[in-house]
Amino acid sequence: MIDTALLEAFGKLLGPKGVITDRDSITPWLTDWRGRFHGQSPAILAPATTAEVASVLRLAHERRIALVPQGGNTSMVGGATPPADGNALILSLRRMNRIRSISTDANQAVCEAGVILSTLHDAAAAAGRRFPLSLAARGSATIGGLVSTNAGGTQVLRHGTMRGLVEGIEAVLPDGSIFDGLAPLKKDNRGYDLRHLLIGAEGTLGVVTAATLTLVPPITGRATVWVGVGGPQDALALLRWLQRRFGSIVEGFEVMADDCVGHVLDHIPGTRLPIATPAPWHTLIEIDLSALDDGQAAVEAALATMLAEGGIGIIDAAVAQNENQAEAFWRLRESISEAERARGPTLQFDISVPVDAMPDFMTAIAAEATGRFPGTTASSFGHLGDGNVHFHVRAPAGTADGSGWIAANGEEIARFVNDRLVARGGSISAEHGIGQMKRAELGRLSSPARLAALRAIKTAFDPDGIMNPGKLIPLASEG
Ligand SMILES: Cc1cc2nc3c(=O)[nH]c(=O)nc-3n(C[C@H](O)[C@H](O)[C@H](O)COP(=O)(O)OP(=O)(O)OC[C@H]3O[C@@H](n4cnc5c(N)ncnc54)[C@H](O)[C@@H]3O)c2cc1C
Fold this sequence. Notes:
This protein is α+β, with helices and mostly antiparallel strands.
């Protein structure tokens, strides 16, 4: 039971800054970024060191107190929102915000869990390096949250997800013991890999306190290109052509249905389409020019060759002529979710299928969903080269936020989309994790073998179920 005496006991471990009970300070952390989940908690625990985290977990373990690890609270699936019953404490890692070291010899940074992604970007740049993972929430998302959700973003095509960038991990396990796995060993075959179990565990197996992360050389020049294409199949053909021509320096390749871009142009001031000719689909391409002598000219020449060769349905193209233009191109892509929020209620599906199946899937699922749910509109945007897009189903025009459309229709539409996705061998969560939003669907759609393994791992680490209850692991009634 969480009472004043217990909070005082935590206060003795963490000092006055380490236990926050003031309602105004707690309230912003009780609701998720999308405003769909609302929790309760009597306090936020905010340790400043790994030893303090360990002392918190020891006491919580002893008293069977549930903890909800939280970084920037940018989870898209309600993963860091405490349960509504108020029987869990938020464990904020935001005070653990030191970059412990940056080594330019090893190309590595050791960061505490609370380091904000953009802070790491800046520190790596100051050291002449780059941390090659970025996403629109970079000003708030923390290393602990990024590790715990195995975050992706716009550079996965070249550099992989967080899983590929974490070389070592330090964590506190649910009984308060410290797992010190920060050493970046390229080879380590001591059986089960705890690092990889903790990556993507969404705070259900322990608390990540620090990570050793891969840095790469900085980009000294980039080509940012907007290409309007006839359809998703043309987009994939374009990606494969560019990869044949430029290899792994094709760092980002985003695809967007025209209506997604249209919402940005309608709702985000100061945006404009980079190409003059309308197109049903758009791609945004980023190529690292650092190793090319003739940089931008090489990309422009390649595009001209490709157009002359024909075969790919390219409608129009524009190459950013300076950094401001490159940023403006990316702003269009990164503002889609914000623009849709301004338009009205939207159901978002962060999905993956095998890359070569994605073009047909995007077209088919949009037609099937709008056919089944008249009045809705549906389309996709995202990371085509990773076989991962965000498929959005929007409420009929004029539906107001707060009208209850999502509550009334969300479950049925989710089942409809997820059934079709699973039938094609896809995943209901490519990037954002499961949290509380997708837990029941994970239970409904997982094989008995997957569910049994998930539950067995959870029980082995956290037999009392104190770590992030209600997240990720389907309830017994859910599958
Ligand atoms: C505008 C926007 C764009 C986004 N774009 C992308 C994208 O392109 N790709 C992508 O992958 N994600 C994206 N996300 C989702 C989000 O940014 C990521 O999930 C991010 O990794 C969460 O980091 P956070 O610090 O905010 O974690 P939180 O939201 O606080 O927590 C996320 C999960 O991790 C757990 N957790 C947090 N810290 C720890 C810790 N130290 N130890 C153990 N568990 C912990 C929480 O309990 C929760 O389950 C986006 C989000 C927003 C709002």
